[in-house]
Amino acid sequence: MTNHVRELRSERDWSQGALAEQLGVSRQTVNAIETGKYDPSLPLAFKIAALFDLAIEDVFEPDDKPKRRPATPAGERSKR
Amino acid sequence: MSEGNPFRCFQGRFLRDVILIALAILALTFLGRRFSPGTAPRLAIAVVQALLMAWFVVMTVLTIRRLDELMLKLHLEAIAISFTVTAALIAGWGMLELAGAPRIDWSLCAWPLMALLWSVAVAIRNRQYR
Asked: Is B3 in contact with A37 (Cβ distance < 8 A)?
């Protein structure tokens, strides 16, 4: 998983320590997330996205994006 | 203390309490030897020792639960490694004892061994997240 935490943090001129404090984690955790060594849990990922006022998919991206299946109308689904 | 120290949570109050518990258990062991096995004072001392060990377990769990998620992952992995390696060593040595190897009192060795393996595993894993 790739993320834009470092860019977003730099844009706001926050230090790793300041971001860690706002998230309630250690600076090492923030560093590990930024360097891609550690993928955060879903609650922490949501917390990070909320802190930057962004959607989670704007902060975190899977390495291989799954191809989206076309939406199936509700009626079609119930026929199966 | 450095920010990246994974043992930071076990320093300060936790370390002080562990030392006090260890000293109390040791002192009670010497005190218990003054009484014959099966007597009320000896049993009472053994119960107090068991309660102190239980308190140590509670303290360790509470300390680990306060960790942030990366440190929690790191420590739980290290605990899993130390537990399985210690169990394998005790079982393996048990087989060697049957074959004639010297007897080891694991009640004394298991805890320090687990603590050592835990520390080594945490230190190694911590380097990977730096």
From this structure: no
Please answer yes or no on whether B68 and A26 come within 8 Å at the CB atom.
yes
So what's the pLDDT on residue B13?
Answer: 82
A63 located within any domain: no
Sort out which chain B residues have CB atoms less than 8 A from A29's CB and list them.
68-71
For B52-67, the pLDDT digits (tens) are 999 999 998 888 888 8
Enumerate the β-bridge partners of residue A60.
A3
Q: What is the rounded distance in angstroms from the CA atom of residue A45 to the CA atom of residue A52? A: 11
Q: Which residues of A touch B69 (CB under 8 A)?
A: 25, 29, 40-41, 44
- Residue A46 inside a domain? The answer is yes
Its domain, for residue A19, covers 2-52
Half-sphere exposure of A34 (CA within 13 A, CB side): 18
Give the C-alpha separation, A52 to B98, whole Å.
Answer: 63
CA A47/CA B30 separation, integer angstroms: 53
CATH code, A32: 1.10.260.40
